[in-house]
Amino acid sequence: MAGPDYVHGYSAGEVQRLIDQATTLTELLHQDTRYPQGSSVLEAGCGVGAQTVVLAGNSPGAHFTSVDISAASLEAARARVDEKGHGNVLFRQGDIYRLPFPDLSFDHVFVCFVLEHLNRPEQALLHLGAKLKPGGTLTVIEGDHGSTCFYPDSRDAWRTIQCLIDLQALKGGDALIGRRLFPLLTQCGFSGVQVSPRMVYVDSSKPDYVEGFTKKTFIAMVEGVRDPALGAGMSTAQAWERGIRHLYRTTEKDGTFCYTFFKAVARKSPHNGE
């Protein structure tokens, strides 16, 4: 549910990056994301529908309500779902802090790559918890840019990544939020919190991941903040280009790249909510 503070912007290139990311990571992130026949699922912050089509396809008997604050993103998401022929998704526009549904409306809530962009993730989680029925589940997936490691190592490459982390922090977000999911969910009153790391490891024996993840997901994400990073004085143009060049160096035959996502599943306890 990206708003005006969405650090990656809304360009056509960013839309394609989100689609490439979802396509490449489907098995890693969603092989165990399944919802029962007839269950109601709220997808909070669906964006352009990159994850929506995976959810709807994995659980054709479930009923999804996918919400985003951006009308343009919802239009793109609806078109993507229609193209895939999924008839089990309803789209609604709304703010994650003020969702237009009564409390106790959903069996399950799904949130992916959303909390990192919020300046009040705890409040969002409390609000989402209120929309869950007793015993309902919450699934949260987030990345953690600080988990990145690669070979050949490069201080310049790390400085470009740090620019993205710092820009997101300036906008009130947290690019390192993956490591915080357990304390966040427990502090918000969810029970049975289980967090599993989902590491992406890439080398030249995995060409689909070299293209789909290292180049088209991660490096594209860093490249996308070049102008605001330079504008904020976080780097010089020369240092930035050197860092990006060193990131691409990891995609060569002898390079490696690692990144860890975190997937949390929790249950609504009798006392959590707003």
| Number of domain modules | 1
Q: What overall form do the CA principal axes indicate?
A: globular
The share of residues in extended strands comes to: 15-25%
Number of helices: 9
Please name the CATH architecture: 3-Layer(aba) Sandwich
The strand count comes to: 8
CATH class: Alpha Beta
CATH superfamily: Vaccinia Virus protein VP39
* CATH fold naming: Rossmann fold
Any low-confidence stretches, pLDDT <50, length ≥5? 6-10
Question: What are the secondary-structure elements, in order, as H or E?
Answer: HEHEHEEHEEHHEHHHE
Word description of this protein:
There is one protein chain. This protein has nine helices and eight strands. The chain is of the alpha/beta class and 274 residues long. Strands 1, 2, 3, 4, 5, 6, 7 and 8 form an eight-stranded mixed sheet that branches. The radius of gyration is 18 Å and the shape is globular. It is 40% helix and 23% strand. It has a single domain, classed as Rossmann fold. About 2% of the residues have low confidence. β2, α3 and β3 form a beta-alpha-beta unit.
Describe the secondary structure blueprint for this structure.
Elements: H1 12-30, E1 40-44, H2 52-58, E2 63-68, H3 71-84, E3 89-93, E4 106-112, H4 121-131, E5 132-142, E6 149-151, H5 155-170, H6 181-187, E7 190-203, H7 207-223, H8 226-231, H9 237-249, E8 256-268
Parallel strand pairs: 1-2, 1-4, 2-3, 4-5
Antiparallel strand pairs: 5-8, 6-8, 7-8
Helix pairs in contact: 1-7, 5-9
